[in-house]
Amino acid sequence: MTRIVGTLSRRARMWTALVIVLLIGVVAVPPAPAQDRDCGHFATQAAAQAYFVALGGPTDDPDRLDADSDGIACEALPCPCSANPGSAPAPTPTSTPTATPTPTPTPQAPAAKRSARIVRVIDGDTLRVRLSSGRQITVRLIGIDTPETKRPGVAVECGGTAASAYMHRIAFRRGRGRQVTLVNDPSQDATDRYGRTLAYVDASEKGDLSRLMLRAGWASVYVYANPFGRLARYESAAGQAAARRAGAWDRCDGDFHRPA
């Protein structure tokens, strides 16, 4: 019996020693080191930067990805790149923004022209004409204003009679109304509030009747709503008349609407 107990005790001590050795071996063996990565493991700088930041960069750089310690990992790799040191890269856009197209200017409609013959002078800036179709219309000349002579409720104004007489002089030849071309202006309405056609009137052998009225000093430049196409040349003609004190610039001291 004593021999059996002694044998069991020796075996117990052997197993105990074996367990202790195994435990010491487990504790003493160091863990396998994590895989070291270099810049060649990443396709882009942005991917390397994200890994670098996840491992504690730029404070910690266990894989030595930031060679110059500027907080940017693997700077030689192709973009997309991280612009901010120590930060994860901004997300790459999934689509390219579409540029807003520049609107194409709408071309202005060309001026329409109609042939006509002057039938009557109503006043210095208004004519009655007959179209080639035989229909008669009243035309209010674009861009000028003359002293009133026939406006209801308005007394005849200074220079009004002379302005009408001068228009008759340039609109008729040997007692017959001149052949003219009516030219509309795309910047202006087709008719005014009285239903009169708005147009430039270019007479054969005379040219632009409105400009002739301005140069003679019997009309002033008139802009109703929008500047018209011939404004610059009309202002030049009026300026010349004022400098010469022609027509109403002399007779009426340049006041085209004072009572006669």
UniProtKB/TrEMBL annotation:
Question: Which keywords annotate this record?
Answer: Endonuclease, Hydrolase, Nuclease
Domain of life where this protein originates: Bacteria
TNase-like domain segment(s):
112-251
The protein's matches in InterPro entries, at most eight in alphabetical order, are given as: Excalibur_Ca-bd_domain (IPR008613), SNase_OB-fold_sf (IPR035437), Staphylococal_nuclease_OB-fold (IPR016071), Thermonucl_AS (IPR002071)
Bias regions of kind Pro residues — which residues?
A: 88-108
Q: Which Gene Ontology molecular-function terms are recorded?
A: endonuclease activity; hydrolase activity; nucleic acid binding
* Pfam families reported for this sequence: Excalibur (PF05901), SNase (PF00565)
Region of interest (Disordered), residue spans: 85-114
Its recorded name reads Thermonuclease family protein
Highest classification ranks of the organism: Bacteria, Bacillati, Actinomycetota, Thermoleophilia, Solirubrobacterales
